[in-house]
Write a structure and sequence with these properties.
The chain is elongated and about 80 Å long. The protein is built from seven helices and no strands. With about 240 residues, it is mainly alpha-helical. It has one domain. Helix 2 (about 55-100) packs antiparallel against helix 4. The longest helix has about 45 residues, at about 55-100.
Length: about 240
């Protein structure tokens, strides 16, 4: 029988949520970037390899896919997260101004919101009073808007994470398609890509504390379809003489 002085199970696990949105943003951008880098670059190099065994065209197409994809991912992530960040900052500024201009109305609103959560009027008033004395802005942002002012995401961090992860993911199919002998390019690239997709799918699921099987199956099947489609098209174009 444990004593009262013993810590509860998992008491040593951290519960600090500071920076949680930022970490989740990095994770999302990183996993998506790696998956996109693997699939899109592999699809390009496999498609070109299906049309020709010459290393030059495969190298050129793979490099273009890698560089263009990394830049595109970074720009897209930057624009997306900037819009979200600007919206959050505008809401915070509005709430700060309202607290400065009409503190009594804002206090009444905060107490009312806690009443709507099921607290009695007396308890809601006491909670609102204590939270207002401690951090009025934080209390209103939390209850009204579900925003933590310390967790406004950085578009630059998201952009860098996307570009780096895309490049890392893209390097695998790029290198296998460029460096291996002609007879090994396509089969090894297929296998390497599917294994890499299984790893990233499982990693994303594990970090998100979700079941791993479905995400892995989903990304592997998607990768197989993408590679199969581009390989067949490339083979058809190469055999038909359409490429000159």
């Amino acid at each position: 029988m444990s004593s009262l002085s013993e810590p509860a199970p998992h008491a040593d696990e951290p519960h600090d949520s500071s920076g949680l949105a930022e970490r989740l943003n990095w994770l999302r951008a990183g996993v998506l970037g790696a998956n996109d880098g693997i699939v899109s670059t592999a699809a390009v190099v496999v498609g070109v390899a299906g049309a020709t065994t010459a290393t030059g065209p495969i190298l050129a197409a793979g490099a273009a896919a890698l560089i263009g994809g990394a830049v595109s991912m970074a720009l897209g992530e930057y624009v997306s997260v900037s819009s979200s960040s600007d919206s959050q900052k505008a809401l915070i500024a509005t709430e700060r101004r309202e607290l400065a201009e009409m503190p009594e109305e804002e206090f009444a609103e905060l107490a009312y919101l806690y009443e709507q959560k099921g607290l009695s009027a007396e308890t809601a008033g006491a909670v609102a009073r204590e939270l207002t004395a401690h951090d009025a802005l934080g209390a209103h942002l939390d209850v009204e808007l579900n925003i933590d002012p310390d967790e406004v995401v950085s578009p630059w961090n998201a952009a860098v994470a996307s570009a780096v992860s895309f490049t890392i993911g893209a390097l695998l199919p790029f290198l296998t398609a460029v460096l291996l002998p002609a007879e090994w390019k396509i089969p090894v690239t297929f296998v390497a890509v599917l294994v890499a997709l299984a790893v990233t799918g499982g990693l994303g699921a594990r970090l998100g504390r979700a079941p791993m099987v479905r995400p892995i199956v989903r990304v592997v099947i998607g990768g197989m379809l993408a590679l199969g489609a581009t390989f067949l098209i490339g083979t058809w174009l190469g055999s038909s003489g359409a490429l000159g």
